[in-house]
Amino acid sequence: MLVDSHCHLDAAEFDADRDAVVKRARAAGVAVIVVPAVERANFGAVASVCRDYPECRPAYGIHPMYVGRAREEDLDHLRQTLGREPGVAIGEIGLDFFVADRDEPRQRFFFGEQLKIARALDLPVLLHVRRSVDAVLAQLRRIRVPGGIAHAFNGSRQQADEFIKLGFRLGFGGAMTFERASRLRELAATLPITSIVLETDAPDIPPAWQRNGRNEPGELARICGVLAELRGMRPEAVAAATTANARSLLRGLQ
Q1: Is the pLDDT of residue 254 over 80?
Q2: Which residues contact 220 (CB under 8 A, 6 or more apart)?
Q3: 219 by DSSP, 3-state: which?
Q4: Domain 2-253, architecture per CATH
Q5: Mean pLDDT value across the chain
Q6: Cβ-contact 39, 63 below 8 angstroms
Q7: Is 92 exposed, middle or buried (0-12, 13-18, 19+ CB in 10 A)?
Q8: Lower CB density within 10 Å: C or N end of the chain?
Q9: Nearest in space to 127 (alpha carbons), one of 252, 5, 237
Q10: Domain map (residue ranges) of the chain
Q11: Distance (Å, rounded) from C-alpha 198 to C-alpha 222?
C-alpha cells in the first residue's frame, strides 16, 4: 500500500471527475491520501472531501501564499476547526520566498503562530519551503513542534540533515522523476529511507511522463517505482518503508 502524504484533492481541477480520480488511486494501491488546506475558505471543502472518501485524511492550515487575504481571527478559526474536525497535521504552512510581491513579515507571523498552535495541540506540520529552507529551519528551532514533513523538498543535503535532526521527514514526488533533476535524485537515492515519504501535490508538480498535465494520486505508484530504481530497491520495499514513515509521523493515519 501507498500513502500520498500531500494531495489537494479538494481543488477545482478535480471537480469534474473526483470519483474517478479516487478510483484510479485505489487501483494503484494508494490507501491513504492526506489533503492539506491552504486557507480558511477551503477548510470546509477539505473536510467534505475527507468525509466523502474514507481514504482521505485532513490537515488544516494557512498557506504562505494566501496570507495576504488572511486575518488574525483565521487563527482562532483554525483552532476551532481542529476541535471539530481533527486533522492529522497542521498544514499547509510555511514560507515562500519565490514570489516577487511577497510580504515576508506577514508570512513569518502566520507561520510562527501556526507553529505555536501545532506545539500546543501536539500536532506535526506540513511545510511549504520554496526558496525558504533556512528561514523555515530557523523558525522550527525557535518554536519546536512534534515533527512533520518538508513538502516538495529541494534543498541541500545539509539542509535535509537539519530537518531530520528536528524530527522531520522529507516529501518526494513528481519533481524527482525528471532525469535533469540530478541533485534532487541524488538526495532521493542517498538519504536514509526512514526520512522519506511520498507525495504527489496533485494537481500540481506532475511527473515526467505527464509533463504539463494534471497530476493525480494514482500516479504515486509510478513515482514510487522511480524512487525504488534510484535506490536499487524493490518497489514493494520502498512502498512499505515510506508508508511506515508516514504512519509513524501522522498518528491519525493509524
Answers
A1: no
A2: 2, 4, 25, 28, 30, 198, 199, 200
A3: helix
A4: Alpha-Beta Barrel (3.20)
A5: 97
A6: yes
A7: buried
A8: C
A9: 5
A10: 2-253
A11: 11
Tens-place pLDDT, residues 56-66: 999 999 999 99
33 with 56: CB under 8 angstroms?
A: yes
Please state, as a whole number, how many other Cβ atoms lie within 10 Å of the Cβ of residue 103.
13
Cβ contacts of residue 91 below 8 Å, gap of 6+? 36, 37, 59, 60, 61, 125, 126, 127, 128, 148, 149, 151
CA distance 203 to 12: 9
Reported as a single tens digit per residue, the pLDDT across 210-251 is 988 999 999 999 999 999 999 999 999 999 999 999 999 997
Contact 191, 170 (CB under 8 A): yes
Which pLDDT tens digit goes with each residue over 167-196? 999 999 999 999 999 999 999 999 999 999
Q: Supply the DSSP symbol for 215.
A: -
Cell of 163: 530537518
